[in-house]
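PROTEIN DESIGN WORKSHEET
SECTION A - STRUCTURE
LENGTH: 121
C-ALPHA CELLS:
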C-alpha cells in the first residue's frame, strides 16, 4: 500500500500515516482509484485501534462509510485515524486523508468489533 508510520498521539488515540499510491492505481483522470483510497482510510482507522490497545487488539469491520471530497492526487498523502469510542463489544473509528498542504480529500467512519490481534504466523 505504500504506507509509512509517522506518529501516534496516545491521549487522542490518533495515528498519522503517510501514503503514496502506486502508479498502477492512478486512473486515466489522474487521481487515485477510489478502492485504494478506501484502503488507505481503512488502514489508518485500523491502526489507530491497534496502537490504542498497545497492539493487543485489531478491529474487525462491520461497516465502513467513505466520502470522497476531492480528487485524490497521486503524490504523497497524509492519513489520520482515530478511535472515537471503544466499548467491549463495538468500537467506532474515523479516518481522514489529506494532501501535504492540509486539504481534506476524503473521510471515513467504521463500526467494528474488537478482536485479538492476529499473530501473523
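SECTION B - SEQUENCE
RESIDUE ASSIGNMENT:
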Amino acid at each position: 500500500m505504500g504506507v509509512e508510520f509517522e506518529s501516534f498521539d496516545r491521549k487522542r488515540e490518533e495515528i498519522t500515516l503517510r501514503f503514496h499510491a502506486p502508479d498502477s492505481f492512478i486512473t486515466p483522470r489522474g487521481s487515485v482509484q477510489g478502492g485504494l483510497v478506501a484502503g488507505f482510510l481503512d488502514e489508518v482507522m485500523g491502526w489507530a485501534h491497534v496502537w490504542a490497545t498497545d497492539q493487543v487488539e485489531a478491529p474487525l469491520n462491520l461497516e465502513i462509510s467513505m466520502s470522497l471530497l476531492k480528487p485524490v492526487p497521486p503524490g504523497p498523502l497524509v492519513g489520520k485515524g482515530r478511535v472515537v469510542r471503544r466499548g467491549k463489544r463495538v468500537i467506532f473509528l474515523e479516518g481522514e486523508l489529506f494532501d501535504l498542504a492540509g486539504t481534506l480529500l476524503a473521510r471515513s467512519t467504521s463500526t467494528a468489533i474488537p478482536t485479538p490481534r492476529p499473530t501473523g504466523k
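SECTION C - NOTES
DSSP finds one helix and six strands in the chain.
The first strand starts at residue 3 and ends at 9.
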